[in-house]
Design brief:
Strands 7-6-8-9-10-14-15 form a 7-stranded mixed beta sheet, with helices on both faces. Strands 2-1-3-4-5 form a 5-stranded parallel beta sheet, sandwiched between helices. Strands 11-12-13 form a 3-stranded antiparallel beta sheet. Strand 3, helix 4 and strand 4 form a beta-alpha-beta unit. The protein has 2 domains: about 220 residues, Response regulator (Rossmann fold), CATH 3.40.50; about 170 residues, Response regulator (Rossmann fold). About 50% of the residues lie in helices and about 15% in strands. It is globular and about 65 Å long. Pfam families: Peripla_BP_6. InterPro entries: BCAA_transport (IPR051010), Leu-bd (IPR028081), Leu_Ile_Val-bd (IPR000709), Peripla_BP_I (IPR028082).
Length: about 425
């Protein structure tokens, strides 16, 4: 009798354990906790945690509490792939997101597809992510090199048409496609007239930047384009300032984030031109209430303003929640169908998950970095970006015909699989 009672109680506990597991859904953040892009990784984590708390406070997703597990990529693709395998097989995550290095996002997304889990790219600006390497399970929330270059080129063509450009570019997929796009839109494709050098990634050293900047100085260029990101941009731009290059040429950083600007500081950043998919001032300039609410809650929590990295991670969790609830299922195929072609407004104006390439089509912004006194007039000393131009997503993004040409050239199918 005692044995029977013990078995009955054990069965009851097992049932409760299964029920408890079923009441939780896990998502996985694959992000750079260390390495050259760690500051962007921290912002992703903060934005994700904020969304997680809000979603759970409002009932979770389909009544399930959301738990987030995370792994450090160190911006190394091979490590990121192992992380995906671990989080799917051992943690049971239903969705993955993250990035900062496009090489990481592309490799992680491919592994997620093999394991039949959707992957959302946060900071992954290479055109290849939703171009040659696009597939059914990858959704890019942020803009890409094509979109940022297109909005930035409007200003550059007005101010620097016919001038000599010099490119210093991180030697991997994001760097290549960003340089290629900006050269195309600024008519600087002639590498004899507009030279450039590559710097190693992720194993760049100060000497690499010094050598590249010396070549830029000796070229007598009018415009220096630093296709560098994260700590690499901070080091490269600081060295350019120390070498006096800001007095000799205009400086362009095609993809900026608030964290990069903060780490370089207002003296170094003043006057630098770049592009962003979002900044904390955008909701106030254009009166987006939900965006303002996000900025103010983030500031309350972290005594800082959110960067586009935080906004991307935050938005992704809400978009996953909404997609699951529209589909009434966590099934991957159902979630993919729910996302494709869906339009929404969250932290800014309307955005759409384009069906044919899974690129998030959205308004993009060209910015100029403010002077020191303007930056320091802000309560957090973070008012870095003056919006000098914007471009609607439909005008900024590749057309279907342009995308199809890229796919055909790469011998990839026109229907994602």
């Amino acid at each position: 009798m005692k044995a029977s009672r013990w078995l009955f109680l054990l069965a009851g506990f097992c049932t409760l354990g299964v029920q408890a597991a079923e009441e939780v859904v896990k998502v996985g953040l694959n992000y750079p906790k260390t390495g050259h892009y760690k500051e962007q990784g921290l912002e992703q984590m903060r934005g994700a945690l904020m969304a997680l708390d809000e979603i759970n406070a409002s009932g979770g997703i389909l009544g399930k509490r959301v738990e987030m597990v995370s792994r450090n990529t160190s911006s190394v693709p091979e490590k990121s792939v192992r992380n995906v395998e671990d989080m799917v097989r051992n943690e049971g995550v239903k969705m993955l997101f993250g990035g900062s290095s496009s090489a990481v996002a592309i490799a992680s997304g491919k592994k997620a597809r093999a394991l039949n889990v959707p992957y959302f790219g946060t900071l992954t600006y290479s055109n290849s992510t939703t171009g040659e390497e696009a597939h059914s399970h990858m959704f890019r929330e942020t803009y890409n090199a094509w979109m940022s270059s297109k909005v930035l080129s409007k200003h550059l063509n007005e101010q620097y048409a016919g001038k000599k450009f010099f490119y210093i570019t991180a030697d991997y997929t994001w760097g290549w496609t960003t340089e290629e796009s900006l050269r195309m839109f600024t008519n600087t494709t002639d590498t004899g007239a507009h030279p450039g050098v590559k710097t190693p990634f992720p194993k760049s050293r100060v000497k690499h930047f010094k050598e590249a900047l010396a070549a830029a100085r000796d070229s007598k260029a009018d415009v220096l384009v630093l296709v560098l990101f994260g700590n690499d941009m901070v080091r490269g731009l600081t060295l350019a300032y120390d070498m006096g290059l800001k007095k000799q040429m205009a400086i362009v950083v095609p993809n900026l984030t608030l964290g990069m600007a903060r780490d370089a500081g207002p003296t170094v950043m003043s006057g630098v031109l770049g592009a962003v998919p979002w900044s904390w001032k955008v909701p106030y300039i254009y009166d987006y209430p939900r965006g303002k609410q996000f900025v103010e809650e983030y500031a309350r929590r972290y005594s800082s303003y959110p960067s586009s990295s935080a906004a991307s991670a935050y938005s992704i969790l809400y978009q996953y929640k909404d997609a699951v609830e529209r589909a009434q299922s966590f099934d991957t195929k159902a979630v993919i169908r729910s996302l494709e072609g869906h339009s929404y407004s969250l932290l800014k104006d309307e955005q759409i998950w384009r069906k044919f390439d899974h690129q998030n089509v959205q308004t993009v912004y060209a910015v100029r970095c403010r002077d020191l006194d303007e930056v320091f007039a802000d309560r957090y000393n973070l008012d870095y970006f003056e919006v000098i131009d914007s471009l609607p997503g439909i005008e900024a993004a590749r057309t279907y015909e342009e995308w199809a040409a890229v796919r055909k050239k790469a011998n990839r199918p026109l229907l994602l699989n």
